[in-house]
Amino acid sequence: MASAGSSFPGSTNSLSVIGPQYCTPYPIDLRIVKKVMTISDGNFVVTDSAGNILFKVKGVLLTFIHQRRHLLDAAGIPIVTLQSKAMTAHCRWQAFRGESNDPNNLMFSAKTSSILFVKTKLHVFLAHNTKEDVCDFRVEGSWLERSCKIYIGESSTVIAEMHKKHTLQSILVGKDNYMVTVHPNIDYAFIVALIVILDEINHTGQQS
């Protein structure tokens, strides 16, 4: 099971997966806007509560069963590549550093907890957790209601939670808005990556 200050780089008070620069000593509210009416599906913009752009997500269609997403920082530099893994019993995504898909640059993987999807449940394993006996993080909740919480391992410790936000603009221009509150000292880039994976699983019909 993952724990801040032991399995993660950075200070003893932070929980960093992608990078300690994405950990803040205070809660951070993120607004994730999915542009669903675009030629390239799977594009997102992530801002803070003041409207400052923090990340962008670009989708790349490889095949119908193999997807790839790039998480870019505000300057447009790729920091994470998210890629689905085909031909597995469980829906599985892998996250690599930068634009790589080299196993040596694997940061974490995520898979649905069962083949039958009654509700949203995602297990997340850091790269060094090769046995995958116990997950390092898990996501539970209702994707239909956009009400999900992210926990450390199998514990009751919540590190982030999301809910859906409807606005008149989102209805008119075809955008899907998610509000995510990330707790203090938690890697918010990692949280965004998990939300993107969840959205893709839901979008492809692999998760109810």
Automatic annotation (TrEMBL):
Pfam families linked: LOR (PF04525)
InterPro entries xref list: LOR, LOR_sf, Tubby-like_C
Record field: transmembrane: none
UniProt family annotation: Belongs to the LOR family.
Protein name as it appears in the record: Protein LURP-one-related 15-like
Organism: Punica granatum (Pomegranate)
Gene: LOC116192755
